[in-house]
Design goal:
With about 60 residues, the chain is an all-alpha fold. The protein has one domain. The chain contains 2 helices and no strands. The longest helix has 22 residues. The model has no long low-confidence stretch (mean pLDDT about 75).
Length: about 60
């Protein structure tokens, strides 16, 4: 039994360290909405653009003024 307990403890510590290491890899993007107009103009970031980007996991490449 002591060997099984030691293996369980080692696995629990290893998984905890793995989860801590992986949590630093996930990041969220902040996108600022400049306009609520549906067809946003150049240099503007519309609400529809942001929703589409979030749904399709793409980055917005619009320049900000």
């Amino acid at each position: 039994m002591p060997g099984l307990n030691r293996r369980f403890t080692s696995a629990a510590i290893a998984l905890t360290l793995l989860f801590l290491a992986m949590s630093g890899l996930s990041r969220a993007a902040t996108i600022t909405v400049n306009t609520l107009l549906a067809p946003s103009s150049e240099g503007q970031c519309g609400l529809r653009d942001v929703i589409n980007a979030a749904n399709h996991h793409i980055a917005l490449r619009k320049t900000r003024t």
